Amino acid sequence: MQPTVAAPESVTWRVHLDRSMWVAGVRALMLQALHPIAMQGVWQRSDFRTDPTGRLLRTAHFVAVTTYGSLSEADTLGEHIRRVHRSLSFTDPATGRLHRVDQHDLLVWVHCAEVTSYLETCHRAGLELSTADLDRYLDEQAHTATYVGLDPSDVPRNVADMRRYLAKVRPSLSVTPEARQAVRFLLWPKVPEQLAWLAPLKPLWFPVGALSYATLPAWARRAYGMLPEPPGADPVATAGLRALRSGLNRIPERYYNLIFDEATVRSADEARERLLAAGYQVENGFRALRSRTTFRPPDAPAQRIPAKA
């Protein structure tokens, strides 16, 4: 029996447990905002304007559940997301056309913007991934797309196909006033009530937001034109991203987890229990499991799980 949606040996675990995912998640939202129609859906049918941090935390919860949640937990969450999306529509002010939130091309764009941001950002931050790992991650994430109503065959499943998709969609991307406003929100978001105790530390968010912007593709940064582009911006952003990742890795897990919603932490606790029951050693947390765990099938000798699957 698989104790979690994705196996701890998967590339998905290695990427999604990396603490540079905070930058990756914000970068994904900034990239998604470049699709004018998708951005209108967010602008008109979500609470992004009043609670951008809440949307980021909900995305973090979705990533958590579809990584280490149980199959039933992920199915329940997916069913809820699909049901909500089916009930929502919005109007494109440029054309007057009515669109559904669960419109196929919009779901594909959101998925691709997310997984490419997660993969590229974590890899750039210093997470060691081989060429085969990059392809394997996108292939694994094709299953995650089913939770929002897509078929695995609807989305790119390797780096070459993803590059072709992004090249194809790029001519339809542009910076709208709503997209620019969304980036402003993400650079300096409102602190949600449940994290009010973090308000004095809000200035510490700016490096996350600035790095999320700085790690966007150069063409996207030029289109937004919201932050300065000094000479050597890309290597500086990479160095900053690696420094931030190093700093986040020094935060003890019990403090780091305070950032997440209770439901996300509860999902992690339940996953830990399932993994223990399946024979994994998780005493030192999921990140330690990723690199050092020993798994013992009921009738097999102990064997090491390699750091790279």
Describe this structure in words.
The chain is mainly α. It has one domain. Helices cover 59% and strands 3% of the residues. It has 15 helices and four strands. The strands form two sheets. The protein has a two-stranded antiparallel ribbon with strand order 1-2. A two-stranded antiparallel sheet has the order 3-4. The C terminus is likely disordered.
Number of domains: 1
The proportion of residues forming helix, as a percent range, comes to: 55-70%
Cross-sheet strand order for the largest sheet: 1-2
Distance between the termini: 19 Å
Largest sheet report? 2 strands, antiparallel
Question: How do the helices and strands line up, and which of them pair or pack?
Answer:
Elements: H1 11-16, H2 21-32, H3 36-45, H4 52-68, H5 71-86, E1 89-91, E2 98-100, H6 104-125, H7 131-144, H8 159-169, H9 177-187, H10 205-214, H11 218-224, H12 233-249, H13 253-256, H14 262-278, H15 286-292, E3 294-295, E4 303-304
Antiparallel strand pairs: 1-2, 3-4
Give a quick rundown of the structure.
The chain has helices at 11-16, 21-32, 36-45, 52-68, 71-86, 104-125, 131-144, 159-169, 177-187, 205-214, 218-224, 233-249, 253-256, 262-278, 286-292, and strands at residues 89-91, 98-100, 294-295, 303-304.
List the main descriptive attributes of the protein structure presented here.
309 residues, mainly alpha, two-stranded antiparallel ribbon, 15 helices, 59% helix, 3% strand, globular, disordered C terminus, MPAB/Lcp_cat_dom, oxidoreductase activity
